[in-house]
Design a protein that fits this description.
alpha+beta; 99 residues; Arc Repressor Mutant, subunit A; 3-stranded antiparallel β-sheet
């Protein structure tokens, strides 16, 4: 695995290449507690136990460095939006509405 650290403006870009897999992290990495504070409102915030379960099930993208687990806020936000977005159902127009 090769780690490259480059500066792109004010943001730090870390590129990790391992064979055919490539991961590009932009922004800073945060802990589980910080992720919950930044991502959710205080009243609607899920528990740390929920986050650990989602991480273990590989639903939420994370970066493991040794035994430490970190998250990229934008990667998590995109993963949650793509996986849990509920789209409305299109109903066929009723007969009385067409006439």
């Amino acid at each position: 695995m090769r780690h490259e650290v480059r500066r792109a403006g004010a943001r730090k870009v870390i590129s990790m290449k391992s064979g055919m897999n490539e991961l590009v992290v932009s922004g800073k990495l945060v802990s589980a507690e910080q992720l919950l504070e930044l991502l959710f409102d205080e009243k609607s915030r899920p528990s740390l136990r929920w986050l650990r379960g989602q991480t273990k099930a590989k639903v939420i993208p994370h970066i493991r460095i040794g035994h430490l687990v970190f998250f990229d806020l934008e990667m998590v936000r995109a993963a949650l939006a793509s996986r849990n977005l509920v789209r409305h159902r299109m109903l066929a127009p009723s007969v009385s509405a067409v006439a």
